[in-house]
Amino acid sequence: MIRWKRWVASVAVLGLSVVGTALATDADAGVQPATGVGSCTLKNWNPNTDPDDAKDLPEGDRPQSYKPDDYNCDGASFAKPGVEFTKFPQPKDFRVTNHQTQRSIRGCTSLVCTETVQQPTQAINPTSPYFPPFTHFVIIVRENHTFDDYLGDCATTIQAGCNGAVQGTNHISQVPDLHALAKQYSLMDSYSTGTQPPSGPNHWWLFSAQSASSSQQQSYPAGTGTEFDRFLNGTSGPAGEGTNPCTSQTGSGTGTPPVTFVTNGDIYWMVSTGSGYWRNPATGNAEVLPANRPGTNIPEELHANEYACSGQNISDTTIANDYLNYVSTNGLPTYSYVELFNDHPGTYQDIATNDAETNQVVSSIMGNAAYKDNTLIAVTEDDTQNGNNGPDHVSNTYRVPTVMIASPTYMKQHYITHVAYTTSNVLAAMERVANNVHPGILDPNDSLGLSTFPMTTADQSALGDPLEDLWLQGATPLSATAAASPTTGNAPLSVNFTGSATGGTAPYSYSWNFGDGTTNTTQNPSHTYNSAGTYTATLTVTDSASPAHTATANATVTVASTGSPLTATAAASPTSGQIPVNVGFTGAASGGAPPYSYSWNFGDGTTSTAQNPSHTYNNVGTYTATLTVTDSASPAKTASSSVTITADPVAGTAPGAPTGLTATGGNGQVSLNWQAPANNGGVNITSYKVYRGTASGGETLLTSGGCGNVGVVLSCTDTGLTNGQVYYYKVSAVNAIGEGAQSAEASATPTGSSCPPTQLLGNPGFETGTASPWSASTGVVTNNSTEPPHSGSWDAWLDGYGKAHTDTLSQSITLPTGCSNYNFSFWLHVDTAETGSTAYDKLTVQVLNSAGSVLSTLHTYSNLDHNTGYAQHSFSLAPYAGQKITLKFTGTEDYEFQTSFVIDDSAVSVS
Q1: Is 233's pLDDT higher than 80?
Q2: CA gap 559, 750 in Å, rounded
Q3: Torsion angle of alpha carbons 438, 441, 447, 450, nearest 10°?
Q4: Ranges for the Fibronectin type-III domain (predicted)?
Q5: Pairing of the two strands 98-104 and 114-120
Q6: What is the DSSP letter of 565?
Q7: Parallel, antiparallel, or unpaired: how do β-strands 261-264 and 335-340 relate?
């Protein structure tokens, strides 16, 4: 029986279970209802009052009835809820499945040595690596357009790879602009409103987050209500907004919403009650949008209640023009909701105008430099009544063709996504836009909570990047930077340019236009401007993408008129003489931009910043004194001039011999001290020479080491000597005339130990928390409190498993020679569950050579050596002096009853 099991540390992993959002179901799935939701009729339809010339009647006089058009439901096939949509699932599954596993317990008691834990099979962070930095979101909702209008025969009119059967092309000629948008931008062919049919109220729910069948309805942060309540920063609008959309507001409309929005079109008729308000799902209160932005007279609604209050229809042209005029006057809001229906809810649907105005709104925004790179536009449908337009056209399937429009910098173009996106995804994208949360590259550790998106836990996990299939994943836009140095100065001005690029697709190519008619294709060129003027140097960077992207950056350089160049003149008097030579220098400058600054370098290691300095040369030689003049231009100009000085020796003799030479021995060295000669020969001493020998009178010149090539000093230390050897020394002085006589001889004997006291083991007490430089079995080095250390926090615990097991601990060292003591010591504690007088479990301490062969077994310990504390053990390693050896502990257990060998505070001390 195993009575002891080593405890194994484990880390608990938190598994996140994500539950997908279920789509709504209808009780009468697969059957087309005769009236109401899901039917092909609309409320208040009166065929007896449906005139053929409804399209010719003025706005406001068109009867509120429904005229069937070419997009009717006759013969349409109705599928069960979700049948089509479930063919195109989301690309990732973030669900986490737990499984049971057994974990060992170290130091187990009461015969319980394992436990059962739940661990996840995967833990995936759902956030995508990239989300574009949009700040505007525009929804354009239209009426009754089918997959035919978008796709046609997809393989020939859009691109290969469409889902489902081949589409029909019979409607493309009526909506050429819509078809062109679908082909140019990204088309969602599996988008779902989450309800059946995907009619007007469902799209209103999409924008206000009210759909009872959408996951957005399931959980709201306290006190924030609908999407519009989030705009208004509360669960109700400003005071006096009222609950009747047909009654003028009486309140002041004060307050500041966190973001701005505009709706354009008769939104109220789509609300399920038809009464012009919606109910806050958080409070159940009826609400009306404020007519104007709180605190301003800027409208939040355009044409908001013509039909709801006056029974009046507005044409698509009026809707589009008024919306674009609003944008021109007030700027593009964070959110825009634009209805291009032309039938609120009935009479005449002008297909051609609807198509043209959709294209007008898209082209205006995407053609505006201020909005084209920061706006996402969704063009989607109110109803998708398909009729007999092809085998893939099935009504009530959740699927709504939707075009997503954005800059090619961030979004795929000419692309069809088969990912099953829903209102939850689009609403999450709008939330990201409204709060400008995490634009660009995402930190995978970002927490997406209810304060960021009003969604359920499942949504938060699955929608880290709500429309990830559409983006150029992980890409950042190409950008360029340009710099110039200097940026100002007189002509001719030499400028160094520096260019760099980030984002896009490397490698890059560079093209400079210097603004004076010259160009260059190197990354960091130099260029000289010869004429006065202000120049804009433009760098164009092109990346290696296909198609390639370009980015530009500018640097401005200002060149002043050409003036007289800066010049410098240097003079000296005298220019030669016997040392010491005292020279007066004169500096002058002209041209450039006064005032000037002066800098002299006298050529002998000394300098001066005076214009007219004096300087004394004390050593024989020929010197070049250089004057550098700097003017006050920006950037400053410099000019230089030089003069030659000759310092001749004086009439003199070589110096006398140094006096008072002493030599003092040390450990492998001798220290020398002496006095200068009483007579320098009339010329300054420039250096000393040291001679050394191992016999009296046998000294030779030292040219290296501590006493070789010494300068004007009176001491030095000769190193690298052999202890016990007698060394003899003499010293001479040198001046410009030559070397003088040698000093009297001095001698000394280096003494000292060749084995300084030291400790050779690394990490002797294991306090680094790792084994290195020890080599150890897994788990040997530990800070487990079950077996406490002799000192500190860590020790080496060998064995202790209560089963057949072997642990090792070893370290290699090199023993020096010349030492008197070689002591190996360690503290050992033995803990055992064995009984009796037999040595079952053993610890051997061995010395191995560099080849791994055993040189000696120092001692063998066993379970019979168990003790209550630690005992220190010492061994001499003197027989192995000068060798590289390995000290090795080997602990072995038999098949039952544990024995633990715990080692701490080891050392190999030599002296």
Answers
A1: no
A2: 72
A3: 30
A4: 654-754
A5: antiparallel
A6: P
A7: parallel
Q: Measuring CA to CA, how many Å separate 184 from each of 151, 158, 605?
A: 12, 9, 74
Q: Model's pTM, two decimal places? A: 0.46
Mean pLDDT (the chain) is: 75
Task: Give dist(CA 761, CA 902) in Å, integer.
Answer: 18
Q: Which of 586, 591, 584 is nearest to 564 (CA)?
A: 591
pLDDT (mean) for 657-681: 91
In angstroms, the CA 210 to CA 218 distance is 10
Helix, strand and coil in the chain, % to nearest 5: 15, 35, 55
Task: Answer for the pair 299, 336: CB distance below 8 angstroms, yes or no.
Answer: no
Give the strand order in the sheet containing 493-502: 479-485, 493-502, 526-529
Q: In this model, does residue 283 exceed pLDDT 70?
A: no
The C-alpha angle with vertex 622 and arms to 618 and 626, in degrees rounded to 5, equals 95
Instruction: Output b/e per residue, 408-441; b: 16+ Cβ within 10 A.
Output: ebbbbeebbbbbbbbbbbbbbbbbbbbeeebbee
Secondary structure letter of residue 474 according to DSSP: T
- pLDDT tops 90 at residue 147: no
CB-CB contact of 71 with 83 (8 Å): no
Give the DSSP per-residue string, 782-818.
E--TTS--SSSS-EEEEE-SSSSEEEEEEEEEEPPSS
- Of residues 598, 592, 689, the one with CA closest to residue 641: 598
Q: Which residue has the tokens 């995508």?
A: 128
Is cis: bond before 257, omega within 30 of 0? no
Angle, vertex CA 315, rays to CA 313 and CA 318, nearest 5: 120
Type of residue found at 832: T
The two tokens of residue 865 are 């050596």
Q: Is the pLDDT reported for residue 114 higher than 90?
A: no
φ, ψ at 400 (rounded to 5°): -130, 120
Residue ranges and CATH numbers for the domains of the chain are: 479-560 (2.60.40.10), 567-644 (2.60.40.10), 659-748 (2.60.40.10), 758-910 (2.60.120.260)
The residue assigned the tokens 């928390």 is: 769
Tokens of 39: 């039917």
In this predicted structure, what is the pLDDT of residue 747? Answer: 94
| Amino acid occupying residue 282 | A
- State the residue for tokens 């924008």: 207
DSSP letters for 676-718: --S--TTS-EEEEEEEEESSTT--EE--SSTTSS--S-SEEEE
Q: Is the pLDDT of residue 900 over 90?
A: yes
The answer to whether residue 823 scores a pLDDT higher than 70 is yes
Helix (H) or strand (E) holding 534: strand 533-542
Would you place residue 544 in the very low, low, confident or very high pLDDT band (cuts 50, 70, 90)?
Answer: confident
